[in-house]
Design brief:
heterodimer, A: alpha/beta, Rossmann fold, six-stranded mixed sheet, three-stranded antiparallel sheet, 9 strands, globular, B: mainly alpha, 11 helices, about 75% helix
Chain lengths: ~250, ~260
């Protein structure tokens, strides 16, 4: 029984967001085919399933729909066609610092972030020490987040997510900012997490660590799935494509 | 189900707390600023209308203050709440939240400011040697707090959703409230308006809200007509807000 079942999903972004008076007056006229009825498919007919305890790595160039795919799975945006079936609760780290405020301290952000992920205050209180331990930020926990480096912020956010016990975790690139020792710690965590039946979907350009982290892979190109299968084969295909395009 | 609602309530509490903390964290006077703003305006209008325009009215100070603080809640919540989706990109797009929690937190934030200002209003009522009637206040004050929260929330939702599609809405809302400040009997009593126009002034939803507050602060019992009008407008706004939200909320995350 798959935890995530993505079935024939299409997604387009309409271009009609620009209705401001300023755009009307001084904006360049957009030609009909590029205008509001133009459909630029961000995703075209994407299908895959993922079983509990498995891990999926998504590779592809910038702007080919990797993040759109994660947003659709998380449910912050909706697909135009197709269907996504989800089982269990989903937690995501789609952007660095999502749900954090720079003027709040690390401590306050842990509470806010935990609550956004769906934890009860009592749970956060109970797990608080463990979260701080995992993040290795004891000395900075009462400093405002704006004094943190991006690696420190990522550590804080990931530590909260790691303690939220989600059935499915979506990670978009953001872990790359952590230092080597924290990345090693994350790798150990993910191994445990999957052993306990957790499901992982990771978007990354770091092909080496993606290969270590995931068992299966998907290569997206211009919104379409080009290759799907074991991670090693997917990355191999993607690499070949990069070499060819650079060569040409 | 109950656990889920409690969790949402806790999140709402944390979001309101966050905004209040963030707004005053690096200022010296802190929360006093929340009171200072409507207070300064009340003072300016008091000077302008009492001494220059010579409005003839007993207890004019109390009249202005009892209108000014609920107005500050109404207008600030609506103006800032209109940006509640557009200004919180990461909360809308990158995490899964019940979206309406964002405009709701704006309403509660301004409500907190209002509640902090209530003692100030009572000090002025006491100074003007009016009696404070405690008994009707005890139930009418909480009732009005709830009514106004339900009054402001749908307006804020409408503004917030439309602002995602057309960013001009935030400026429009600001101007609208400046106009309505003078259309609503805020600095002049309705009795100064020529009789033949008074009926039109009563078409203004804000009139019923503000006038209700004045009656409640004065310690009188609210007439049924006032309660009915306020609730009627709440229903009207809520219907529009529900319709707008259903029609347009689906694409909020990708448009901001």
């Amino acid at each position: 029984m798959p935890v995530i079942d993505v079935n024939g999903v299409w997604k387009t972004y309409h271009n009609h967001a620009r209705l401001g008076i300023k755009e009307r007056l001084v904006g360049r006229r957009v030609s009909a085919e590029r205008g509001r009825f133009a459909r630029n498919w961000a995703l075209q007919d994407v299908s895959f399933t993922i079983e509990a305890g498995r891990s999926l790595g998504v590779v592809g160039h910038n702007g080919t729909g990797k993040s759109t795919l994660l947003s659709l799975i998380l449910g912050t945006i909706e697909q135009d066609r197709g269907e996504i079936r989800r089982k269990g609760n989903i937690g995501g780290m789609l952007a660095l610092g999502a749900g954090c405020h720079p003027d709040l301290t690390g401590r306050e952000n842990i509470y806010l972030n935990g609550s956004i992920l769906g934890l009860r205050l009592a749970e956060i209180r109970q797990k608080f020490d463990s979260i701080v331990d995992f993040s290795e930020l004891e000395s900075a926990i009462d400093l405002p987040l704006r004094t943190y480096s991006s690696g420190m912020s990522a550590r804080l956010a990931f530590s909260v997510l790691a303690h939220a016990h989600r059935d499915v975790m979506l990670i978009d690139e953001v872990l790359a900012v952590g230092d080597a020792s924290f990345q090693a710690k994350c790798a150990t965590y993910f191994a445990d997490y999957q052993a306990q039946g957790g499901t992982l979907i990771v978007v990354s350009h770091d092909l080496i660590s993606l290969q270590e982290l995931c068992a299966e892979g998907i290569w997206l190109h211009e919104g379409k799935v080009v290759h799907q299968g074991p991670i090693a084969a997917t990355i191999e295909c993607y690499r070949k494509f990069i070499v060819e395009t650079i060569g040409a | 189900m109950i656990g889920r609602n409690l969790q949402t309530a806790e999140l709402l509490y944390l979001l309101v707390l966050k905004e209040l903390k963030v707004r005053y964290k690096r200022s010296v006077l802190g929360y006093l600023w929340a009171i200072a703003n409507p207070f300064a305006f009340a003072f300016v209008y008091w000077v302008a209308f009492k001494f220059i325009m010579r409005v003839q009215m007993e207890n004019y100070t109390v009249f202005i203050l009892t209108g000014m603080f609920p107005w500050a809640w109404l207008s600030q919540a609506a103006i800032q709440g209109t940006g509640s989706f557009t200004n919180n990109l990461s909360l809308v797009r990158h995490v899964k939240l019940p979206k309406l929690i964002l405009p709701c937190s704006n309403v509660l934030q301004e409500m907190a400011h209002f509640v902090l200002a209530i003692p100030v209003v009572f000090v002025f009522i006491a100074l003007s040697s009016e009696q404070i009637h405690a008994v009707p206040l005890l139930w009418q004050l909480p009732m009005m707090l709830v009514l106004q929260a339900f009054f402001v929330f749908p307006i804020t939702v409408i503004g917030a959703v439309l602002n995602v599609y057309v960013r001009d809405i935030q400026y429009l809302v600001g101007i609208m409230f400046s106009v309505f400040f003078f259309v609503t009997p805020m600095v002049y009593p309705l009795s100064m308006v020529p009789v033949e126009y008074r009926a039109y002034f009563k078409l203004n939803p804000a009139y019923w809200l503000i006038d209700s507050w004045r009656i409640v602060f004065a310690g009188d019992v609210l007439p049924l007509g006032h309660i009915a009008s306020v609730i009627g407008w709440i229903l009207a706004f809520s219907l529009v807000a529900a319709w707008v939200y259903r029609r347009l909320a689906g694409r909020i995350a990708e448009l901001i």
